[in-house]
Predict the 3D structure of the following.
Amino acid sequence: MPDGQESMIRYTENLRESLILSGHSAEIWVPTVFFGTGQKSTASGLGKWLGYLDKWLLYPFLLRFRILSNTNKSRQDTFFHICDHSNSPYLSSLPLYRKGITCHDVLAIRGAFGFKDAYCDATMMGKILQNRIFKHLRQSKILTTVSQLTMNQLIELCKGDLPEDRNWKVIHNSFNADFHPMSVAESSVLTVKAGIPAQTPFMLTIGSGLVRKNRKMLLDMAVELGAKWDGLICFAGQPLDDEFRTYIVQLGLKDRVVSIENPDHQTLLALYSACQAFIFPSFSEGFGWPLIEAQACGAPVIASNIEPMPEVSNGSAIHADPYKAPEFAAAFLHLLNEENRNELIKKGYENAKRFDRTAITKEFIQLYTNQSNG
């Protein structure tokens, strides 16, 4: 579906490729686009409602028919894994005891239940949808979460009403692409092309303009640093909105902000490799891929002290209160010392090794092997 779930697509394709490389057969099934044919996106407007018809009315019937009509998919050694928790209602259309799901976060669910710290407000329709998603998640026999935080939050939401024979396990995300440090010569060409003058120091953050991403922190950091640092502030990902640009002007930082919209992978590698520090001040996450991506490229990381960021960094990043710009500014000044910076980079490289996809794929295989033997 053209719903813009790029991270879920990457996760699914990465898992499929990893399973195949491990000697298993794997293929991806996606909802059939019928009502939404011709729509550029199913994320909003008419396309959103037509997408609902395709996903929740049509596809469950097609899914059952496909399984029944395909004898290869009916074998007892074939398992079905739903890679996006928002598709949990499909669990009811899959064979009993041969199905599982990955829960990437419960932010939207917690938002629908009124938890303000999720930073995910829900509409009336959104609350209905999230309740439906949660209902199927909590009934799942096989379930993985990408962080211990998400597992804890999901269990807390269930309030003790859990399947007795459940097999729930934390399996962290692995890298879904090749992330490595670029040479200064190679990265400089790409960063200059992206709008950062050669040899100009910059701090970097990557992501959307959602409130929970806390982009504003980098601007407040620059104000706190004052004359102690006069580099650029780079925002990569979604474009900056008008309200954010107004705040930039109010702070007198217009000439120090660079916005790089949706950089391609090579440009992303260059940005990670060349930045003085990668700043990840998010208020809420399910995992936080950018943290380990930056580390794998040799960037020292300053991140929020709210879980799961400390879980993911495992002591290899500096963590600070995402509500306190002075703490982030102090951490940045600490990294201006070359010895401190190099020490954190070294820790980051070591931490990134934990998310090797080969080792993580083995955990998935073991999960279903245990289920089959059981």
In short: The CA atoms of residues 209 and 240 lie 7 Å apart. The two ends are 35 Å apart (CA to CA). Residues 6-174+357-373 form a domain with the Rossmann fold fold (CATH 3.40.50.2000). The mean pLDDT is 91.
